[in-house]
Automatic annotation (TrEMBL):
Entry membrane topology: Multi-pass membrane protein
Primary location group: membrane
Name of this chain's protein: Allantoin permease
Signal peptide: none
Amino acid sequence: MLSSLKSIEPKRWFTKDYWYLDTPPASYATRDGWSNADVDVVPVDQRNWRAIHYLFLWLSDGANVGTMQQAGSIVAMGLSWREASAAIAIGNIIIAAAVALNGTIGSRHHIPFSIASRASLGFYFSYFAVVSRLVLGLIYFGINTFIGASCTLICLEAIWPQLKTYPNTIPASQGVTSNKMIAYFVFWTIQFPLVLIHPRKMRWLFFVKSIVAIIAAFATLGWAVNTAGGSGPVFSKHSTLTGSTRSWAWVAGINVAISGKTTLAINIPDLTRYANKTSASYWQLLFIPIVYFTFSFIGIVIASAGQAIYGTLYWDPTMIIAQWTSRAGAFFVAFAFALATLGTNISTNSIAASNDFAFIAPKWLNIQRGAFITAIIGGWATCPWKIQQSAKALTTFLSGYIIVLAPIVAIMISDYWIVRKTKFHVPMLYQNEGIYKYQYGTNWRALVTLLIAVPINLPGLINAINSKVDIGNYSFFYKASWLTSTAMGASIYLLLSFIFPPTSTLVDKTVESMDEDFALADSQAWETEQDKEKRSSGGGELPESSSSYPIVNRV
């Protein structure tokens, strides 16, 4: 009997019924197969993230190699370490506000970014934002995996020193050596089962990673200062810039500090939707500036002390670790930074891409299946070693894609907080014929905003990709690309919304469920009957609003 069942089970894997995901009975989706448990509103019993868990998230994300290198890219512009630190602090305060404001949508209504974007972009136009983020998420998943492989290679070489001289059989044109590819495969294999963990259970993974990464960062800091006998030469250097050039370097430094977290700012509802309180999102205003400023400053100190020790300025801390003679020390610190990179890859790329897959094909994909596809396509099909090796134009384009994402973040925030005054009709967000359909599924105000805000920064992006394209002083405008894109996105969208208000999509009170909607409608219907009786008896004035459906303001 058991043997016959075993022979039948594999055959079911090739049937549609086996892979089909049922739409939950409580779903608000218009049709069966248009939603699943990972796309729907998070049930109350699964809202188990507290504010402290988001601190672990940011510590896991911030205590990594990329954060420590960020200060170096700003100092390289000609600013002093003090100016670079100040630019990082200002930039992180700004992006923290964007994360907290957009994250509140998730912590208050417990819906993912993809569903929330329908309110401001429209039921079908929201797919543009989702696909845009999905493509970036897949590419950056591969790039971060390749960065994690660098840390893994140090670990492997600490265990097997002969790996340093392992013969390379991969052509130089591929941008990767044989030992680095071995490290890549090891890191990807370790990462694979972890990305399959559901986000609501991910908080403990971030806790472990944050503790390990913090210990490694401060241990490296202590070693560097002690060995160098101080903080090193970087702290004695002053800015090499003057006048307007220095001012624009400040602006560019702030822009760099902000840009790297734009992806998280847009997909933060995917994480805050599991919060047990709305206020959990507000804590990002405190967590983000403190975490990223602290570890950016640690990166400056380690790089400066490393220059005093080795005579070369390494902004990448793994370059310093690779030169340690202590194999055990190199292993544990590199292992910690590999874990931190893994945490960044999951929070910034894997969770976002997995949610996007579940949103695009909810009939067949949930978050775990989306994570599986992300690991395969993002980890291997994107060939991140090729991107890192030769495609400078591509990496510049990817980093410059914030000119598209930043206006989307601005539209979502201004729409939710100012236009709608934080009021959503949540069930309608899941219905293609609901109030958020707009015209042909597109909010034309958002479309016009993007058509204006995005092209303005395109010349600067082209110049950044190919410096031979002369755009004159217009290049300075691109140095503040995130700031200008966000400001234009918010102002244009608000202007259009005030002149042509989306009246049919506005609600007088937040509606979280259809039961609540029906109850309010029934209550208003009862009041309307009382008004009729009052009119027939000639007693008193009728109230100004006697609509039979007060929840939605019809045009």
